[in-house]
Specification:
By secondary structure, the chain is of the alpha/beta class. It is built from ten helices and six strands.
């Protein structure tokens, strides 16, 4: 049976390039593509692909949060994270949230193909220049990391946090999530209290530290 793969990236050119690369392998078939971060989870739950190739940074909900939820709801699907960030913090968070592979966007195409084969065989994969010898260290740090207050947030509070960090107003968030602006404000107040934040600046700084917003290279 062919390996069923789903792509999640908000850049059409990137998705096209990945699709062409993967469908050049006789045992791979791309069963779906998603550009909207909030649609990734329901689409994966509906199609249950063998592998999800997931962009780390997507507007609305980042890859780390998507991976965390899918690891619980669709444990069969292996997740390979695509990222431009080679720093340890992102690798640890990706592994902690359930990703089996972490591939840098600057890598050659064969690295992504290799990562998919590795995770299907039950192994973790980190693309160079991340050392494969460091996988155990990264995994150990990921497993032993202390509980982050972020873990106390509800699913909806996390969605509001991600959108607010991107600069969306409460009415805009309400439209995106199909809830009222008053409900958005309630969720925003709850998440700010749980995270010990007071201002929008605090929220943005927290989002940068937590990997919700990308750090500038």
């Amino acid at each position: 049976m062919p390996v069923r793969i789903m792509l999640a990236d908000d850049h059409p050119v990137m998705r096209l390039g990945i699709r062409n690369l993967l469908e050049g392998e006789p045992e791979f078939t791309v069963v779906g593509e998603v550009s909207d971060a909030l649609e990734v989870i329901p689409q994966v739950e509906a199609l249950t692909p063998d592998v999800l190739v997931l962009d780390l940074v997507m507007p609305g909900l980042n890859g780390l949060e998507i991976a965390r939820r899918l690891t619980r709801s669709v444990p069969h699907t292996r997740i390979v994270m695509l990222s431009m960030h080679a720093n340890e913090a992102y690798v640890i968070e990706a592994l902690r949230n359930g990703a089996s592979g972490y591939v840098l966007k600057g890598s050659e195409g064969r690295e992504l193909v290799r990562s998919i084969r590795e995770v299907l065989d039950g192994r973790r994969y980190l693309s160079p220049p991340l050392s494969e010898d460091a996988i155990a260290m990264y995994a150990e740090k990921a497993a032993g990391a202390p509980l982050d207050p972020y873990e106390t947030l509800s699913t909806r509070e996390r969605e509001v946090l991600h959108l607010a960090a991107e600069g969306h107003t409460s009415p805009e968030i309400a439209v995106r999530l199909s809830i009222s602006a008053r409900t958005v404000e309630a969720h925003r107040g709850n998440l700010m209290r749980k995270l010990g934040l007071r201002t929008q600046t605090d929220l943005v700084r927290y989002a940068l530290r937590r990997g919700i917003l990308p750090l500038e290279e």
